[in-house]
Amino acid sequence: MKKTFVLDTNVILFDPLAIQKFGKNKIFIPLIVVEEVDRFKKDQNENGRNARHFSRIIDDYRSVGALSKGVKLANGGELCISMDLFPKNISSAGIDISINDNLILSSALALKEKGEKVYLVTKDINLRLKADILGIIAEDYLSQEVNSLDELYSGHRIVEVPANILDEFEKERFLDIDKMNITKIFPNEYITLCEVGNDRHRHLARYSLDKMGAVPLISSREGVWGIYPKNMEQQFALDALLNDDIKLVSMVGKAGTGKTLLAIAAGLQKSITEEKHTRLLVSRPIQPMGRDLGFLPGDVNEKLAPWMQPIFDNMDFLFGQHRSRSESSSWEELIDQGLLHVEPLTYIRGRSITGQYLIVDEAQNLSPHEIKTIITRAGEDTKIVLTGDCEQIDSPYLDSVNNGLAYCVDNLKTENIIAHTTLRSGERSELSEVASKLL
């Protein structure tokens, strides 16, 4: 029996191509959803772009047939956009149809009353709750195998081996995967090799798919732009950030773990010191925490300054640590020379970024579609670093497991040019660590 999926407005704003992703089933969109999407079409943000994209897609399907009667989709499914439907006993159902969400529920109930196997697809948690109460099956859109942040791929594992095997790794600087007794491991996954029964005797390594075994981390004894790793997780992060064979690095961690600082330090090292990249490009989404302040005065640089200030703070710290170097006394000079560029993500669509070290901070506030847009901008010799805290989501349409950063980690972990690491130890200050744990 075919399923009928009733889509909520937030699903379309999240992914305008959603109607193509339900197989050979029926997609029903109530008229109220079209009206809500229409209100967003003039917005100059991702919601506005998605609303306009969806409208163009639907307009193309109008030439196929009457949308109210249903038209065939390219994947074999069926799309129907109709007036809002009402079940026979709507008054007894206790639904206030003056509320838009309830109109969507009403349509789902009416379709169920006709004998269709109805699923309501929405990213609104409260709407899913109301659907459950009314006996309608409700699902989140793009639900992944990862149901909680604890299940997200960490990028690291502990492997116990006999002392002689550990000594072999130390001597040969390589350990075959068959000697580690591992059933499944992902490319560039980080490994803590421990002696059986003695976790103090250990070595840190990275799994190399090309060599089919564990290899040592890139040494950072001299520091990276004045920064030294303070814990094991930061050693993993620096190895990924400094490895030229790894083209995309994702780092997830709570506030104060050093994600942004390490990324910028490595970016300066690779682009300024080693000249492996022509420029360091640092960006972040413009997403306010809490109530927005509204329009800001000044030119474009003055308007963006508050959003970019966390990046500038890290720059100030790094250049304070690095003042002994004569070639650059401040990050402003690097900007003037075109070697460093700090900008919002607003204008990245349509660009081709070649030969740059691109850092995207606060990537947890991006949707999977936005993350895809950013990564597909990468040209030859460009490396992308995504950093963020999946527990600090400022976007109303995202949560800890369906945001773009978590989506990227979960879907790209099998690729040989991808590396991921999770940072859990706070190093910003004692106060910061206490607040992260207890507040």
Question: What can you tell me about this protein's structure?
Answer:
With 439 residues, the chain is of the alpha/beta class. The chain has three domains: 3-139, 5'-nuclease (Rossmann fold, 3-Layer(aba) Sandwich), CATH 3.40.50.1010; 148-216, Roll (Archaeosine Trna-guanine Transglycosylase, Chain: A, domain 4), CATH 2.30.130; 226-438, P-loop containing nucleotide triphosphate hydrolases (Rossmann fold, 3-Layer(aba) Sandwich), CATH 3.40.50.300. It contains 13 helices and 17 strands. The protein has helices at 9-14, 31-38, 46-62, 100-113, 125-133, 163-172, 232-242, 259-273, 300-321, 331-336, 368-375, 404-412, 430-438; strands at residues 3-7, 26-30, 71-72, 78-82, 117-121, 137-139, 156-161, 175-176, 190-195, 198-208, 213-216, 248-253, 279-284, 340-344, 356-360, 383-388, 418-423. The strands form three sheets. Strands 3-4-2-1-5-6 form a six-stranded mixed sheet. Helix 8 crosses helix 9 (300-321). The protein starts with a strand and ends with a helix.
